[in-house]
Design brief:
By secondary structure, this protein is mostly beta strands. Helix content is about 10%, strand content about 45%. The chain is elongated and about 60 Å long. It starts with a strand and ends in a 5-residue tail after the last helix.
Length: about 150
């Protein structure tokens, strides 16, 4: 395998485990064809003259079962997707990110020297990534409380 990655260990990458949220840059020879079962929102493909790179990170949409309850304009509202949360909230009522106990597999299909190839990523659920999201949500709460009322 001629793949290299730029997450944590900076070593050649073969099929293997990748941690959710860790920055990822995998350079592969040839031409990108597709990702299966789908290409996650936080993963992009950079095609070059001699190869391509898979760049980004495996993010929050991989695991389900989220429950975020906040108040907005005095009303309690529940969300099951992070991206649907409003930019400004009154208060965080409940913060329960989904933490499925299983890993998620992605396969990168590409072609090099006329030959079909693939690289598999086994993405491991990393609950530590939610700590930063909780801090971000609490900052939105403070923004909502700090905003002066128009008179």
């Amino acid at each position: 395998m001629h793949a290299t990655c730029d997450h944590h260990h900076h070593a050649p990458l073969a099929d293997g485990q990748v941690m959710q949220f860790d920055p990822l840059r995998v350079a592969l020879p040839g031409h990108f064809l597709r990702m299966e079962p789908y290409q996650p929102a936080d993963i992009r493909i950079e095609q070059g003259a001699c190869g391509f790179a898979v760049v980004g990170h495996y993010g929050f949409e991989l695991f389900t079962g989220h429950c975020f309850e906040v108040t907005v304009d005095g009303q309690r509202r529940m969300f099951d997707r992070w991206k649907d949360l409003p930019a400004v909230i009154d208060a965080v009522v409940r913060f329960l990110p989904g933490t499925d106990p299983h890993d998620v597999d992605f396969t990168i299909h590409y072609q090099h020297a006329g030959e079909a190839r693939k690289l598999r990523h086994n993405v491991h659920n990393a609950p530590h990534g939610w700590v930063a999201r909780l801090r971000e949500l609490l900052a939105r709460e403070r923004q909502g409380k700090a905003a002066p009322c128009p008179q």
